[in-house]
Structures are given as C-alpha cells and as structure tokens.
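step 3/5: co-fold with calcium ion
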Amino acid sequence: MVGADVAAAAGGGMMKWLLILSGAALIAVAGYGIYGPEVDTTPKILDVCVTHSDSINHYHPWIFIKINGEIVNIPEGTGVTEECMYPIHTHSPDGKLHIEIPSSNPLKITVEDFFTVWGSEFNENQILDYSADENHEIIMTVYPTKEDYVNGTNGVVSTDYEKHVFTSVDADGDGIADGDDTVVLIEYKEK
Ligand SMILES: [Ca+2]
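step 4/5: write tokens
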C-alpha cells in the first residue's frame, strides 16, 4: 500500500507539471502568433539587386566617417558583389554613394541600408568597432550639400542615426531626388 501511495503522489505531481508545461506552451504559441511576424528584421536592402537597364531613380549622397578626427576610408565597390549590385553602393573610395531605386520597387533607402550592404555597424552607440562610452560620443551631422560640408556651413546635428533616409522625393521640383548631394557625417570623438 505504501508503494501505491508513493506512485499516486508521483503521478499527481507529474500531472500538475504537465498542466503547467502545456499552459506555457500555449502561451508561447499565442505569443508567436501575435509577435512572430513582427520581429522579422531581415534587411530588405539585401533582397534587391539593380541593373542600369531598369528604370531607376539614380542620385548621389555622400557619407563620411571620422574616428577621433581621422577620416575612415569607405571601400570602392561596397555593396557590389559578383551576384548583386545593391540599391546603395559605392564605385569610388571617396564617400560618394550611388543610390539606384528601381521604379518597380520604390525602396526608402536609409543609412542603415548602407551599413548593411557594407557589413559594418552603426547606431547611436556604435560606429564600426568603436562604442560610445563615458568619454566618447557619436555625433551625426547632415549637410544639405557637399559644398556645405567642405565649408562647414548649414550642418544640422541629427538624432536619426541609422534611420536617416536619403530621400528620393523631389519636393523642390528640380527633377533630382532631394537626397542628392546631401552629406551624412558620422563622428566618433571625445566628449
Ligand atoms: Ca529635388
């Protein structure tokens, strides 16, 4: 009798655990149902290849990176592989970006897209291998033209960081995307 009582007690305990576990599984399934599709962080920029023959909105912003005052070289051919030329890429090592948006796929191109095709890190706390800390900060400044950047005029500090859009909109009606010739400067420096 004693043995049977122990077995019954053990069986009851197991049933309790099964109920708890199945409850947890239900919550997990429900959670996936609610949140699963929303956490798709696959960079869309890597799904699109461009060719010069497609009908394309083609314009040229600039990006410059300074680490402790030194300009970082951005390689020629960033965003260009044998298999794919991504909608944001370089053809020279001078910070000139080529944005080519197929009219069949009107992407919104961000600074993050460039770092994605480059395979490098950038956000408000990190630029390349450098992290913001108590002594260092990351400042992003946007200039309306390359000439402004060279002259140090009309720069606006932005807190958009990687979310900054190189706009393809032509709000001023000159026939060129307004993001053309704009400059993003990312600086990592001592506070
Ligand atoms: Ca324009």
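step 5/5: annotate
The two ends are 77 Å apart (CA to CA).
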